[in-house]
Amino acid sequence: MRLAMVGLGKMGANMTLRLVRAGHEVIGFDVNPDAVAEVEAQGAIGATSLDDAIGKLEAPRVVWLMLPAGRITQDTINQTAAAMQPGDVIVDGGNSRFTDGVESAMSLQERGISFLDAGVSGGVWGLENGFCLMVGGTAEAVEVVRPVFESLAPADGFAHVGPPGAGHYVKMVHNGIEYGLMQAYAEGFELMAAAEEFQLDLHQISELWRHGSVVRSWLLDLTERALADEPTLSEIQPVVADSGEGRWTVEDAVNRAVPLPVITASLYARFATRDVNAFGARLLAALRNQFGGHAVLVEDTAVEPNPKA
Fold it and tell me: Is residue 171 annotated as part of the catalytic site, yes or no?
């Protein structure tokens, strides 16, 4: 099918290329013309503006947004809706707050335009491995976009999880859990790094645990990759950002009186990295780079050493 992808950063560009490889016609637009040229070179159809992208679609039009959460996404939703017609579909695949998705769906419903909030996980590896998709919205709108969802996701990696807002809510909790898992690995490896009398090879141990251990996981695979590149992580500054979803998870838990001690502690640990020079913090920063292509700080300069970024 034909759709427009608005926002061609790491995720949007890789999703565009995966769809093109699956035989879909993707019109790509980004405020950076170089990003448009890059996807054009690999088979996408370039657009010079949002209106140009929408104009290249046929009813029912599908526009997928992969933009930073907040004002830029909301403004683009409004601008997109102004150029669309009843029966068209807007998909927000960014890490927007779930409450924003509920409000957008209600506003667009009055105009006959459907809204889907799609939580997307997979990071920079999604191009090759597929993206896990958690989609909220009406069943009718999901069916319109289903061919795209199925092409983006690996087998069993896509689900319609509920009404509008549910997709971003599930992704929010997913990222909160991610915070906790990453923190547990970081603390364990920091403890082993402190046990100097044993002279432990942390890369060897990370590789060992990947085979048969009950703590094996994709995050452990990425831990092994990070330690293979730099066993001491001495070149990485121990500053770990939080991108919003962890805070929203904790805030929602407080509002619902649901105890989340591990996730809450992991969020606070990220706050603490602003002042503490710790091995665990360096590992957290390295893991974020490995799975999501997030920049790490090396000698006060932001770099992206991950070749998959």
Answer: yes
Q: What are phi and psi of 48, to 5 degrees?
A: -95, -10
- DSSP class of residue 260 equals -
Q: How confident is the model at residue 288 (pLDDT cuts 50, 70, 90)?
A: confident
Token pair listed for 256: 């619902």
Q: Determine how many CB atoms are found less than 10 A away from the CB of residue 140.
A: 10
User: What is the per-residue pLDDT across 13-45, written as a single tens digit (0 to 9) for each?
Assistant: 999 999 999 999 999 999 999 999 999 999 999
Q: Which of 178, 187, 224, 245 is catalytic?
A: 178
288 residue type, one letter: R
Identify the active-site residue in 25, 38, 140, 171.
171
pLDDT tens string 46-81: 999 999 999 999 999 999 999 998 999 999 999 999
Give dist(CA 160, CA 178) in Å, integer: 21
Question: What pTM did the predictor assign?
Answer: 0.87
- Tell me which residue of 245, 282, 269 sits closest to 183, measured CA to CA: 269
Residue 301 neighbours by CB under 8 Å, 6+ apart: none
Radius of gyration of the chain (CA): 20
Q: Encoding tokens for residue 14?
A: 């890789």
